[in-house]
Specification:
The structure holds two protein chains of two kinds.
Chain A (H helix, E strand, L loop, with lengths): L1 H4 L4 H8 L4 H7 L2 H17 L6 H25 L1 H6 L15 H22 L2 H22 L6 H10 L1 H10 L4 H24 L1 H7 L4 H4 L2 H24 L5 H23 L3 H32 L8
Helix pairs in contact in A: 4-5, 4-10, 4-16, 5-7, 5-8, 5-10, 7-8, 8-9, 8-10, 9-11, 10-11, 11-14, 11-16, 14-15, 15-16
Chain B lengths: L12 H33 L9
Classes of the chains: A mainly alpha, B mainly alpha.
């Protein structure tokens, strides 16, 4: 804990060793990431064929949310040295000295084991195994290996953030399907342009922390090209639910229009107007990408709730 | 340890307040888990929760 003991006085160390406020432990769960996980998992669960008791559905969503939170806590435990060097993350509970690292490790481990166990006992062991795999993938494959090693870190590691709708689907059916894979694919392809837009804005931060993000390793120009490529793939994947017949024509129209908007936003980043305009283009793409994903999933949810006709009916 | 001995950690009022808040949070979570397991048991087993060989 050199990053902590270097700068902390005795009283801060004692305070840290005694643990932080409840709010600090909630922050370890990365609540904003968790809210997206809950929403996408809910869509997967609601769209899955078959029935699940509402109480068990709520338990499934709770377990997926807690599993995601556990991943966040374990990520902060391992990445505390990186977080301390980045302006965006320096105020997190561990680098700021409010929560000791071993607390975060214990907190995350208990929540991970608890969420997987309860999901298995209450719902089914297939979805529990998938949740366990997702947590391990995020913590070991992404956090411990990819993040510090390759500029493709968020491409491969992004899979962990894309699994929740598949877990929600599995909670109902006990298996995966092409539909749940498409729900995964949309988020998987969406993740790189979403994060690289942020990485372009914060590349100094990442460089200082020694994280090999694409803009640092391959340069901003290569990153912009990849952003356009992945944005186009995301827009195509976004239309798949309609093409494959598990979304209605309303969804299809919205996916096409907003997908074109996604690519247009990416093209603005690609053209690189320079200075403040370039930063604004990145910020706009980052914000738009969040709205895009939320909108597509919200429409899927609404169409399913309203029982609108699915697929192409010519 | 808040005894009279000089050795050991003495909590400041702020630290004691934080510890109390954490303890309450853990109690609330445990109570919620009790309710959760009760609800899951009823949903999964229903009336047959009592229908088992002795």
């Amino acid at each position: 804990m050199a990053f902590l003991s270097d700068s902390a006085d005795d009283s801060r160390l004692i305070a840290s060793g005694l643990g932080g406020d409840v709010r600090d432990y909630v922050d370890l769960l990365k609540p904003r990431v968790m809210s997206l996980v809950v929403f996408t998992a809910l869509v997967g669960l609601v769209m899955a064929p078959g029935d699940i008791h509402p109480v068990l559905a709520a338990v499934a969503i709770l377990c997926i949310a807690v599993g995601a939170g556990a991943s966040g806590a374990l990520n902060m435990w391992f990445d505390a040295d990186i977080d301390a060097r980045m302006g965006r993350t320096a105020a997190r509970p561990i680098p700021s000295g409010r929560v000791p690292r071993d607390h975060a490790l214990a907190f995350g481990t208990v929540l991970a084991i608890g969420s997987v166990s309860v999901l298995g006992i209450a719902v089914n062991w297939a979805s529990a195994a998938f949740l366990a795999f997702t947590i391990l993938f995020y913590v070991i494959v992404y956090t411990m290996l990819l993040k510090r090693w390759t500029p493709q870190n968020i491409v491969i590691g992004g899979a962990a953030g894309a699994f929740p709708p598949m877990i929600g689907w599995m909670a109902v059916t006990g298996s995966v399907s092409i539909e749940s894979f498409v729900l995964f694919l949309i988020i998987f392809l969406w993740t790189p342009p979403h994060f690289w837009a942020l990485a372009l804005l914060k590349s100094d931060d990442y460089a200082r922390a020694g994280v090999p993000m694409l803009p640092i390793v391959k340069g901003a120009a290569a990153t912009r090209t990849q952003i356009v490529a992945y944005s186009a793939l995301t827009a195509l994947a976004g239309v798949l639910p309609f093409v494959l017949g598990f979304a209605g024509i309303g969804y299809g129209a919205i996916a096409i229009v907003t997908g074109l908007g996604f690519v247009a936003m990416a093209m603005r980043v690609y053209r690189d107007p320079g200075g403040d305009a370039a930063r604004r283009a990145c910020r706009n793409l980052f914000g738009y990408s969040i709205l895009y994903l939320l909108l597509l999933y919200a429409v899927l949810l609404a169409e399913h709730g309203l029982n609108v006709p699915m697929g192409v009916h010519l | 340890m808040t005894g009279t001995a000089d050795s050991g950690v003495r909590l400041t009022p702020e630290q004691a307040k934080r510890r109390r808040a954490r303890s309450i949070a853990i109690a609330v979570v445990l109570a919620a888990l009790v309710l959760l397991f009760y609800a899951v048991t009823i949903v999964k087993l229903g009336p047959s929760v009592l229908d088992r060989p002795l």
